[in-house]
Amino acid sequence: MALNRNPILLVHGLMDTSHEMRKLASHLRDLGWQVFDIDLTLNDGSTRLEILAQQVADLVDRTFAPDLPIDLLGFSMGGLVTRYYLQRLGGIDRVQRYISISAPNRGTIAGYFSIRPGCIQMRPNSEFIRDLNRDVDRLQYLNFTCLWTPFDLIILPPSSSQLGIGTEISIPAIAHPLMLLDGRTFNATSDALSQPIESPI
After folding, report:
1. What is the pLDDT of residue 197?
2. How many C-beta atoms lie closer than 10 Å to residue 7's C-beta?
3. N or C: which end of the chain has fewer CB within 10 A?
4. How far apart are CA 178 and CA 182, in angstroms?
5. CA 22/CA 3 separation, integer angstroms
6. What H or E segment, with its residue span, contains residue 190?
7. d(Cα 126, Cα 131) in Å, to the nearest integer?
8. H helices of 31-182, where?
9. Helix, strand, coil proportions of the chain in percent (round to 5)?
10. Do 100 and 82 contact (CB within 8 A), yes or no?
11. Going from the N-terminus, what domains does the chain have, and what CATH number goes with each?
């Protein structure tokens, strides 16, 4: 059964590493998925998000055969990084299922707490955000699932995680980082990865 599943790449958030994704990764591996991850550098907001997205693109090219479809998941800042990879670096031609977890898809007021370039790009109405949202409908070519929590204190307002397309699921985790520890997130993720592909890549 697992042989029919796409490998999945997990992309972490700001100030995180792949370590923060370990429980979700373990859950998916236990269910039979082949799980890959990445440690973005530098991950502290000092690196522009398109540069981090290129790191994702390079890893995909190194790791997976060109004709092998993959699935992709981005958490928090990693959600914007993965969107740039999909929408600007050709990833949309490699990926079949895409999951965004608590990403600042429409920006976050928390981006004003830092003047680092990557944080500035996460501010509401930044040029980076505006650029990605100009053709956000492209994500509808994928099996796209957006998970978010209404109690998020990092993505402000929390509804900024929503894009109004694909499947959107509210998971009432009581804090941003707890989205990666919540059993409801695990179940929603494995459910999304089990969905049949409706649109060809």
Report:
1. 86
2. 15
3. N
4. 6
5. 22
6. helix 183-193
7. 8
8. 49-63, 77-88, 117-121, 127-134
9. 45, 15, 40
10. yes
11. 2-193 (3.40.50.1820)
Query: Of the candidates 75, 60, 61, 84, which has an alpha carbon nearest to the alpha carbon of residue 25?
Result: 75
Q: Is 31 exposed, middle or buried (0-12, 13-18, 19+ CB in 10 A)?
A: middle
pLDDT by residue (tens digit) across 34-76? Answer: 999 999 999 999 999 999 999 999 999 999 999 999 999 999 9
pTM (two decimals) = 0.96
158 in Cβ contact with 184 (< 8 Å): no
Output phi, psi for 71, to 5 deg: -115, 155
pLDDT at residue 4 above 80? no
Q: Residue 28: which residues within 8 A CB-CB, separation 6 or more?
A: 8, 35, 189, 190, 193
Greatest pairwise CA separation for the chain in angstroms: 47
CA 191 to chain centroid, in Å, comes to 16
Q: What is the residue whose two structure tokens read 């859950």?
A: 27
The neighbour count for residue 99, using CB atoms within 10 Å, is 28
Question: Is the bond preceding residue 157 a cis peptide, omega within 30 degrees?
Answer: yes
Backbone angles phi, psi at 35, to 5 degrees: -115, 135
